[in-house]
Amino acid sequence: MRRLKWLYPGMLIKRWIFLSVFGILMISMGFVIVIAERNPDSKAMAGVVIIAGILCVIVAVKRIIKSLMTVLVTKPAGKGNDLVDKIYEKRILEKGPKIVVIGGGTGLSTLLTGLKQKTSNITAIVTVADDGGSSGRLREEFDVLPPGDIRNCLVALSGSEDLLGALFQFRFTQGEGLHGHNFGNLFITALSRVTGDFASAIRESSKVLAIRGNVFPATLQKVKLVAKREDGRETVGECRVREEKGSPVEKVSLLPKDCSATEESVEAIRQADAIVLGPGSLYTSVMPNLLIEGIKKEVIKSKAPKIYICNVMTEAGETDNYSVSDHVRAVIKHTHPSAVNVCIANIARIPKDSYEKYKEENKFPVKLDASDDEWFARENIKLVKARIAGAQEFVRHDHIKLSNVIMDILNEYKAE
């Protein structure tokens, strides 16, 4: 009975099946005439019949495929058929390298936007130490992990339409209780209650957004970031670490100290062809992941190239006066010398208007000079200098240029 449904009225496929059968019969009849007849005129007519039959089959097959794809492939509103994109993703991007990106904040989502054009084998391991803004409020009121950074990564890797991505990023600007919240944060929070846990909510959100790759929280435990400053003070909470100024950060740690990494994150690092740290705030986005013992241990053990992407600008209260080598020194101090073997640093000039705006906020371009070159040479860490900064409303990495540099590094490692 199920097979007979192909013959139901309105299926828009019967006529093309019959046309293909008719074409096959014409081809068969033509070959019979060619074999049986000796008359040249008959053979010429048989050739016409064969050609007509072949054309019938081609048209029928083309129409059958089109009828099926109209149903199976979602056609974006206002755009052409995205079948080519889906085939490209399935055949080409799935063969791309397995890249694990570790971090948080806007820097991580910016990088993912570029990398998803190169490979669909991406795993984003995201910090859950955020306690500010919409994420902080949801964390406090609903006792859930902060969804903000994870939401940004899901949207960045999304293969769905712009409208759905914009919906997840939509921030309410009015309404008692809703003001300041992102729709995506609320969606993930609600889904965690429906599915029973935060990890399941992320998996289901990934399906909704049709992401390329995977997004995993670094841990499923509710952690707090603790910063010890050079003047001896301790700052508890990621938001306070960002906001408190006056004394540079000396060291950061997590509470509880024995928090465990998610199994998916650990397994992704083990299978990685490349591990990318950052870009993002050094102490509040990148470092919280590396403080989790399971993640730190696997990163150190990995034989894959471990690439640290240095920030373009310093951050007041976190990395004041830091050079490129200072950033990598901090990572090594909290982990191990083998945690980084490649560093990407920006050498593009910052536009004057952007420079002045950041100067007022005590943020400056990260320094890179001869002393950095000497330090990287001594430590046997490859320093890659590239023009990867882009300045629009904010000074950030250009996701296309940055992803190209990463792929070039991977190709060099393969060639060695």
Account of the protein in words:
Helix 1 packs antiparallel against helix 2 (40-72) and helix 4 (105-115) crosses helix 17. The model is unreliable at 76-81 (pLDDT under 50). The chain is of the alpha/beta class. The N and C termini lie far apart (59 Å). It has helices at 14-36, 40-72, 83-91, 105-115, 133-142, 148-156, 162-169, 183-195, 198-209, 238-243, 263-271, 282-290, 293-301, 324-334, 352-360, 370-379, 399-415, and strands at 99-103, 122-126, 214-217, 224-229, 234-236, 249-255, 274-277, 306-309, 342-346, 382-386, 389-391, 395-397. The longest helix is centred in the first third of the chain and has 33 residues, at 40-72. It folds into two domains: 3-72; 87-415, CofD-like domains (Rossmann fold).
Instruction: Assess the beta-strand content as a share of residues.
Output: 5-15%
CATH class of the largest domain: Alpha Beta
Radius of gyration: 28 Å
CA distance, first residue to last residue? 59 Å
Give the overall shape, derived from the CA principal axes: elongated
Helix and strand sequence: HHHEHEHHHHHEEEHEHEHHEHEHHEEEH
Task: Write out the CATH superfamily name of the largest domain.
Answer: CofD-like domains
Q: Helix count, per DSSP?
A: 17
Spatial order of the strands forming the largest sheet? 3-2-1-7-8-9-10
Instruction: Kindly state the number of beta strands.
Output: 12
For the sheet with most strands, the description reads: 7 strands, parallel
Helicity, as a percent range: 40-55%
At CATH level 3, the topology of the largest domain is Rossmann fold
Total discrete domains: 2
CATH architectural type of the largest domain: 3-Layer(aba) Sandwich
Weakly predicted, low-confidence segments: 76-81
Which structural class is indicated by helix and strand composition?
A: alpha/beta
Average pLDDT metric: 89
